[in-house]
User: What shape does this take?
Amino acid sequence: MDNMVDNLERFALGNVITENDAVIIEPNVDDVTLSLEDYSRFKYGDGAVSRLYGAAIARHLVPLCIEIEGPRDLYVTSSAYKIARPASASLIEPFVGMAQAVTHVYGSRTRIVPFKINRANLTDGDYAAMTAEERDKVMEQNGLTLPKGIDIEDKHVIAIDDIRVTGAHEVSIDALLRKMGADLVTHAYILDVPNGKSNPTLEARINQSSIQDINDLIEVASVKHFAANARFGKRILIERPDDIKKFVDSVSVRITSRILNDAIGDGLDEMDCYKNGFSALINAFAERVIPHFD
Assistant: This one.
């Protein structure tokens, strides 16, 4: 596998290249169909796509780990977060399920142990639209920690993320995991952008491939396995008040409640760029759930 180095440091299902003004995905595996449209939907909470991606990473990566290491436990985590889960967190459950199936087929006693990385400080903007310098600054201020009781001393940790662009996030996560004692860290991605440092905002373009307006957000929120995530919630909070009301009136109360809880938990309601959207969201929510009496 071309993008897998000998010591298992990095793996990706596909690479992103640009030709003229076109963005193209070159797959690294034969049995996974990758498209910009599906990836975009995944980034905004389409759980069906998350399941395909998470299982595919496990199916191709875990056998390599078992063959090299034997029955050694594998610890797996996603991007760090505070309250609202990032899109990458939705990859963990399908990864773990497929990974356990793979170890069983190989007759290995390897356990798959998921854990979370805590993030204390959040950015008030869209990371995907930031320059390489801005990304580095954000990563320096993240405040990453492991929860109490998580011991990764001398362990192999697989850190799953959705895309590698400049590598700033990878460096930040890697530093924490190695500081806490991990002796091998594999960074696993859906997509890798080999020359991402020269065009970091390409990620924002990829993310928007299937999501253009409020109708697209409503459509994604209506799929069977939808799970609101941090990107989806932030996007709702920057929409126009009338579009926010349209969203609230179109989706389940549970989804809007989740977005509100995540926003409060992450402090978005106090950030200048989200304050107005939060007020519009909570007003629209109140109008829908509080009965009107004549």
